[in-house]
Amino acid sequence: MEPRIDLMANEIGAKLAKRFAGVAMVIAQSTLPKATQDLVMLRASQINGCAFCVDMHTKEATAAGETAARLHLVAAWREAGVFTEAERAALALTEEGTRIADAHPGVSDETWAQVRKHYDDDQIAALVSLVGMINAANRMNVIVRNQGGSYEPGMYAGVVS
Question: Which residue ranges does UniProt annotate as crossing the membrane (predicted)?
Fold first, then answer.
């Protein structure tokens, strides 16, 4: 299966990627813990079947010092004892926000209460935005058939500049 289009090589695609990266940078610079951001991006990417993003976020998290055990267990986080209560709340929000079409009425009050318990308003704004952004990225990559396996940590660092 070959990619359908290289969005980064297209003028409009490159402009959109730059703005997308700008939003991602705001989220990355927030007080939402980096490890939580990595886990959220990986879990949404797994759910959405985005091999490109699973590859990218696994490698970026590893480069940032995340353990292999935690990365391997993200898909089964409910049955794993390696995540904090705060991370569990973020992962639950990620799953419910990602599966919004399948999980009427969307994010449960119980999950929202857990998120409110562990994160302040700025962190919640970053978390909600991160879930939306990674879902958009997953969908774009799946639509154009970007494949996983060739990502190198930091390879898109210059997109924002």
Answer: none
